[in-house]
Design goal:
The chain has 382 residues and is an alpha/beta fold. Helix content is 22%, strand content 31%. Bound molecules: S-adenosyl-L-homocysteine.
């Protein structure tokens, strides 16, 4: 899962340097049975006992609820100022959404969003967190003197009991790579349907997925063609797998060859889990003569219930975030002339075996002066 740590090919933001990835798959993860063990044990790669190595039958689901127990991933998220400052600004600059309200923080982590909410005047915040970090969140809440207004509940949203029947506000930072990886969105929708009062708000309430095309000869060579000749040996069988794994990495804005197209908008306050599976068409028009090596997907989120609309973008023209962008390499190198169109469609579906993973089907074609191609490619985010 190294690809999620990304390369540092473009030092276009401090976060490109970040070492922790949003989901940790390191083999020092504790198996579930050992969840109750102390912190020291969890962090030690040499922990004794039944150390499990991730085998081929394991999916990210087996480690998902443990990956957030380590502080490193929370450090990375908190230091992502685009992300954390956006939430802080939304909450503290829109007191009217929080004043005297009952708030539910879905996936509270360190409790940072709950803390912002009480500062903004919330009457009470219920902070649900399933990882071991819930214990830290409890301590953090206490250390800051908010134990009477923030209740940290350790457990899965889908399994816990909430002390109140309804809440006025649901806040969550659920977005994964490619927006939907991790599929925590379903957890937010579950909480919304179960606890949100009539007229209540979900924050953020809009998320959109976007697509563009880039020139990326150098890096494609380094990541894909590399396998053709490794110290004189043909390892090209790995190339097929490398092609299938979307690469999470930062893309430089000047690599962009076409327009950026909106693929899909999701209304978190209304959508159903099924809306996270979709097929959408795209039409990317070249803004210059160039080669296209990959398509790049990224997402924006917005908080439309604020005084003035607020939100942030994880696109290549915006300040880098820990989500970076998601690069889908194309089999063909496409030669495109200014004004020509690369058209196609993208199908996104949660993996049947593990719904936290994503299957992507990409169809594309171009009928240009220099290049005629029509192809379908499959990708898996694991
Ligand atoms: N709100 C925090 C953490 C966001 S990361 C912040 O903004 O910094 C998402 C968090 O949700 C992780 O800590 C993860 O452990 C938690 N989480 C994911 N699925 C969950 C579920 N089903 N129930 C409870 N917590 C969940």
């Amino acid at each position: 899962m190294d690809q999620r740590k990304g390369g540092d090919r473009n030092a276009n933001g401090g976060l490109a340097e970040a070492t922790a990835s949003r989901l940790r798959f390191d083999s020092d993860e504790e198996p579930e049975a050992e969840e109750e063990m102390g912190m020291e044990v969890e962090e030690s790669p040499d922990a004794e006992g039944e150390e499990e190595v991730i085998g081929s039958d394991k999916t990210s689901a087996d480690y998902y609820f443990d990956s957030y127990s380590h502080f490193g991933i929370h450090e990375e998220m908190l230091k992502d100022v685009v992300r954390t400052k956006s939430y802080q600004n939304v909450i503290t600059q829109n007191g009217f959404l929080f004043k005297d309200k009952i708030v539910l923080d879905v996936g509270a982590g360190t409790g940072i969003l709950s803390l912002f909410c009480v500062k903004a005047g919330a009457k009470h915040v219920y902070a649900i967190e399933c990882s071991q970090m819930a214990d830290m969140a409890k301590e953090i809440v206490k250390a800051n003197g908010y134990s009477d207004v923030i209740t940290v509940i350790k457990g899965k949203v889908e399994e816990i009991e909430l002390p109140v029947p309804k809440v006025d506000v649901i806040i969550s930072e659920w977005m994964g790579y490619f927006l939907l990886f991790e599929n925590m969105l379903n957890t937010v929708l579950y909480a919304r349907d179960k606890w949100l009062a009539d007229g209540g708000v979900v924050l953020p309430d809009k998320a959109s997925l976007h697509l563009t095309a880039i020139e990326d000869a150098e890096y494609k060579e380094d990541k894909i063609a590399f396998w053709d000749n490794v110290y004189g040996f043909d390892m090209s069988c790995i190339k097929k797998q490398a092609m299938m794994e979307p690469l999470v990495d930062t893309v430089d804005a000047n690599q962009i060859v076409t327009n950026c197209q909106l693929l899909k908008t999701m209304d978190i306050s209304k959508m159903t889990p099924g809306d996270a599976s979709f097929t959408v068409p795209f039409k990317l028009v070249a803004e210059r003569n160039d080669y296209i090596h990959a398509l790049v997907a990224y997402f924006n989120v917005s908080f439309t219930k604020c005084h003035k609309m607020m939100g942030f973008s994880t696109g290549p023209r915006s300040k880098a975030t820990h989500w970076k962008q998601t690069v889908l390499y194309l089999e063909d190198v496409i030669t495109i002339c200014q004004g020509e169109t690369l058209m196609g469609s993208m199908t996104v579906t949660p993996n049947k075996k593990n719904p936290r993973d994503i299957d992507i089907k990409l169809k594309y074609s171009i009928n240009g002066h220099r290049c005629q191609v029509s192809r379908t490619q499959y990708y898996k985010m694991r």
